[in-house]
Amino acid sequence: MARVVIGLSGGVDSSVAAHLLKEQGHEVIGLFMINWHDTTGTLEGDCPWHDDRLFAELVAKKLDIALHVVDLSEEYRARVVEYMFAEYEQGRTPNPDVLCNREIKFDVFLREAQKLGADFVATGHYCRKEVTHAADGSERYHLLAGSDPNKDQSYFLCQLSQEQLRYALFPIGHLLKSEVRQIAAEQGLATAKRKDSQGICFVGKVDLPTFLQQKLAKRVGNVHEIKAEWPKFDRRPGYDPAAGEPSQELLAALAEPWHFTVRDGKKIGTHNGAHFYTIGQRKGLGIGGRKESLFILATDVAENVIYVGEGDHHRGLWRSALKINANEMHWIDPDHEIGVGEKARFSVRIRYRQPLQQATLYRFEEACYLLFDEPQRGITAGQFAAWYNGEELVGSGTILG
Fold first, then answer.
1. Element (H, E) at 17
2. Judging by DSSP bridges, how do beta strands 392-398 and 139-145 pair with one another?
3. N or C end of the chain, less CB within 10 A?
């Protein structure tokens, strides 16, 4: 059996994962991370890690395992939070949970665990790992979706490498959430009925504008409404699969985000900073009196203007393709990587919990394009597109537009 260091977070998932590992005969060591101290913008008002640590200690005592505490807040701020600020400042919408897993849980945390002699590190993620052998005899590590379709968290791990997966264990990935709760109750774990954490990884639930104002100042700007009959919607070329393979030029046109100017729509209100908003957002505008909700279609941080449209089916919310720079492509399973000039079919999601969408990935020298079978709502720069082959998450990339 192996020595396994588990990230004991104070939640039910990692608690049950620790129990299962011990039941399997492993030597289990708990490691609790303190990653955030600042309460600015948090809705709870206190640092949530204080309570988390208490629950982690109760679980460790119940399971009779050692619990170590490590403060990784400097690394977390430098590698996750500063990245968030920089992305929002540029008008992009980052995914801090994906970065937290790549940069902290399976990097900084992994190194801390290895100081404790860890053979593996474990987390309470709802996903699975499979090991196969390549033709040369080397091991290949595969990231599979969790068995619970409502809790599958593989998307959040879409940037992990083979080296990171080599050390990773996901003890609860084969279970349903209800089964995890049941095991926790049967074992008398203090976390059995504790609510799941929400919000930004290790920061908690936040009021995003307030949180971002630590670095990004308020800037009053205008909100302009774009009508559904805006003439340029009709000028974008379409794609007919019967016409053959699309050219790179057509893919680039289909993936281009909608661009508006103040002359394209009427001013209907003001906002406190375009960098506080994201495409597809409907809350926080404070503009009422409409039959349907207003949604953000685009933000212009240079001019500090927000463009909105009425209704969830507004044409400005939808596109059929997205672009990823070639240097932003990441392949978890190199066996699925396609070469320049090649294409492949995948199931894709562009945000957590989105049902998988069918698409074709086209690779060129400087960029890749995902062309969806059906138009997608709210494609957002800075988010991650993750593509699957069946249950296996094989690659991902940062959406350029």
1. helix 12-23
2. antiparallel
3. N
Kindly report the CATH class assigned to 217-398: mainly beta
Closest CA to 385 of 321, 337, 340: 321
342 HSE (CA, 13 A, CB side): 7
What DSSP letter does each residue of 198-222 carry, written as one string?
Answer: -SBTTTBSB-HHHHHTTTS----EE
Question: Where are the extended beta strands (E) located within 186-310?
Answer: 221-225, 266-271, 294-300, 305-310
Report the CATH superfamily, name and number, of domain 3-211: HUPs (3.40.50.620)
216 Cβ partners below 8 Å, 6+ apart? 85, 88, 89, 273, 275, 276
Which residues 6+ apart lie within 8 Å of 241 measured at CB? none
Q: How many CB atoms within 10 Å of residue 196? A: 9
pLDDT digits (tens, 9 = 90+) for 98-117: 999 999 999 999 999 999 99
Query: Could you tell me the pTM of the whole model?
Result: 0.92
Exposed e or buried b for every residue in 113-132, given b needs 16+ CB within 10 A? beeeebebbbbbbbbbbeee
Domain chopping of the chain, boundaries: 3-211, 217-398
Cα–Cα–Cα angle for 190, 11, 74, nearest 5°? 130
Report the distance separating Cα 14 and Cα 21, nearest Å: 10
Q: Which residues are catalytic?
A: 100, 201
What are the pLDDT digits (tens) for 283-319?
888 888 889 999 999 999 999 999 999 999 999 999 9
Q: How far is CA 374 from CA 211, 244, 257, 370, in A?
A: 35, 17, 16, 11
Q: Which residues contact residue 253 at a Cβ distance below 8 angstroms, ignoring those fewer than 6 apart?
A: 236, 237
For residue 142, count other CB atoms closer than 10 A to its CB.
20
